Amino acid sequence: MNSKTQNKIAIGTLYGVAGLVVLILLALLGYILVSGLPQLSWHFLTAPAKAFLKGGGVGVQLYNSFYLLILAMLISFPIALGAAIYLYEYARDNWVTTTIRTAIEILSSLPSVVVGLFGFLFFVVKLRLGFSILSGAFALTFFNLPLLTRSIEDSLRTIDLSQREGGLALGLSRWETITRVILPAAVPSILTGVILSAGRVFGEAAALIYTAGQSAPALDFTDWNPFNISSPLNPMRPAETLAVHIWKINSEGIMPDAKAISSGSSAVLVLAILIFNFAARYLGKRLYKRLTSA
Amino acid sequence: MKTTQQLEKQLKRHSKAAKLEIWGKVVSFSALLLIVAVVVGIIGFVASKGIATFTSNHVNLWDFLTEKKWNPGITDANGKPEVGALPMIVGSFLITILSAIVATPFAIGTAVFMNEISPNKGAKILQPVTELLVGIPSVVYGFIGLSVVVPATRAIFGGSGFGVLSGTCVLFVMILPTVTSMSVDALRSVPRYYREASLALGATQWQTIYKVVLRAATPGLMTAVVFGMARAFGEALAVQMVIGNAALMPGSLVDPAATLTSVLTTGIGNTVMGSLQNNALWSLALVLLLMSLVFNLIIRLIGRKGRLQ
Q1: Do residues A10 and A152 both lie within one domain?
Q2: Which of A126, A181, A241, B25 is deepest in the core (most CB within 10 A)?
Q3: Helix (H) or strand (E) segment spanning residue B306
Q4: Taking CB atoms and an 8 Å cut-off, how many pairs form between chains A and B?
């Protein structure tokens, strides 16, 4: 066999492999959306879940997912931002920095179930927070921190060195250069990173099973006093999220329409991830144009 | 009139900007320290709980790693508790290695296609699809495994359908996008002139890909595969939903089995803190943690070797 025929066979095979992968991936997306979208209705998205009867919705779970997401982001964003600023703008290239970077890498490679178990041990048991939104938000923070830090650091890296020199040459301190010059310039790509990590947090379940709990008490959406147990704002109540709900009803659910509810919830999750992805791209570009007048 | 002392004090005082600078540095550094403290905390807590099985319950470490019976509530004929973790360790490694073996050719083939053969189609179709699929939650993969893969395995091979084979299928699809997109990055970092030099020497496209590009990108590709394996090893819910959760040595690929993660997710809520049953589970978590450190180390070693070349 000469090298030309070999070449043709190999390239043909690669076409086949790529085609097969596209087929698998599209079939996967198609299956989620085709089986899930018909389940979606206003009732499904807002009604509370039913444990033994069919016709329940995922309203409470959907709300919990968003509430947890916002809380986790509120906690993790300032920490990640500070850490990224120090790592990229201040840290010298020495063994301390290398060790810290290694630690962050280790955190990002820990299985989420281990992070969840630590959250269970530390927040739920040791600090006696119980299965609560707060415990869940902390666990999600740990899960989110390394990736968010890395993505913010990458955003800082894209800002040209001349911007920093410009700031310093104008007599600003380093901190002022960072807050007045670098951060505004980096906002679009930081935002993109934040939204993409939000997508990951939104679908996380393993870290939440033993921190935010697996039950979703009914909420009274007219009561906005955070100290009442049925208030949606109460951070001390157990809160099952959408992703945990899918796992829960598939592994121990007894409702007759578990499959339909799982398909619907999966579709909601995937749609949310899709929206996060598009929003990240669109907002990033839009903001970039706006801020740089490019 | 100011005395010289007062003047000196005034001149030596930090300016507002300098104070702000120190403040900023301290705040950003404490954020960093917090992350490090979290890492140390996680490892410390899990390790201290995990070794309790061996220190306070006096289980032999060797027995723990090599015995095949997992019934922490029951003691065997010699009065020792049955905490043999081998079935779970084997289960975890089996599905990790199998899914990596299946996923690697597909992922690298697709990456080569995207980067070398048809960059246009790659950028337009494959890139967005893989990026989207990287973000799909693992429970969704688990649910699809439960409603598509498990019935299919049941129909083809008989039995319950739950088992190592179903777990491998789910993990294969799950790590495919991750490994693909990392492989693309690895191929992209191969300088363009390598390809041009090879083509100019009269090599065909396939020879260029096989003999030059893939060789040059080997460390990056290996990192991608190990990263995928680390993800597969640590994946909990998707695997737990399809593997059958029977803590037995898997006799065949279609027998129900268990992994470290699946036993952890199902067990930890049903045991009492501080009991042997609970401690044994924490030991499994420790094994999981150590394995993720090992994967991390392998990735580092590959990276270092790649730089040396």
Answers
A1: no
A2: A241
A3: helix B276-308
A4: 257
**Residues A74 and A138 placed together within one structural domain of the fold:** yes
Whether residue A246 lies within 8 A of chain B, CB to CB, comes out as yes
Q: Closest Cα to residue A242, out of A263, A257, A226? A: A263
In chain B, residues 50-89 whose CB comes closer than 8 Å to chain A = none
CATH of the domain at B291: 1.10.3720.10
Nearest to B178 by CA among B143, B144, B124, B135: B135
Give yes or no: residues A129 and A177 share one domain: yes
d(C-alpha B51, C-alpha B56), whole Å = 8
Q: Examine residue B20 and state whether it is found in any structural domain, yes or no.
A: no
Please write down the HEC assignment for all residues of B186-218: HHHCCCHHHHHHHHHCCCCHHHHHHHHHHHHCH
**A113 and A239 housed in the same domain:** yes
- Check if B202 contacts A (Cβ < 8 Å): no
Same domain, A25 and A76: no
- Say if the Cβ atoms of A85 and B28 lie within 8 Å: yes
Q: The tokens of A135 are what?
A: 């415990």
**What total of structural domains would you count in chain A?**
2
Q: What residues does B191 pair with on adjacent strands?
A: none
pLDDT digits over B169-211, tens only?
Answer: 999 999 999 999 999 999 999 999 999 999 999 999 999 999 9
Instruction: Please indicate, yes or no, if residue B188 is contained in any of the structural domains.
Output: yes
Q: Which domain holds residue A10?
A: 1-39
**CB neighbourhood size of B270 (10 A):** 9
Domain total of chain B:
1
Percent of chain B with pLDDT over 70: 98
Put simply, whether A103 touches B (Cβ < 8 Å) is: yes
Which B residues in the span 206-265 are in contact with A, Cβ-Cβ below 8 Å? Answer: 206-207, 209-210, 230, 233-237, 240-241, 261, 264-265
Same domain? For A32 and A100 the reply is no
Whether residue A206 is found in the same domain as residue A77: yes
Average pLDDT in the A64-81 region?
93
Q: Is B53 inside a domain boundary?
A: no
Say which DSSP state B15 is in. Answer: P
Same domain for A67 and A175? yes
- The whole domain housing B158 covers 86-308
Whether B262 maps to a domain, the answer reads yes
Tell me whether A169 touches chain B (CB under 8 Å): no
Residue from B128, B139, B132 nearest B241 by CA:
B139
Of residues A114, A179, A205, nearest to B139 (C-beta): A205
Taking the Cβ of residue A118 and every Cβ of chain B, the question of whether any pair is shorter than 8 Å is answered with yes
Closest Cβ opposite residue A262 in set B27, B42, B143: B143
Query: Which residue of B lies nearest to A266 if distances are taken between CA atoms?
Result: B140
Q: Which residue in A145, A175, A273 has the most chain B C-beta atoms within 10 A of its own C-beta, making it the best mutation to test that interface?
A: A175
| Residue A49 near residue A117, CB atoms below 8 Å | no
**Residue among B38, B118, B148 whose CB faces A31 most closely:** B148
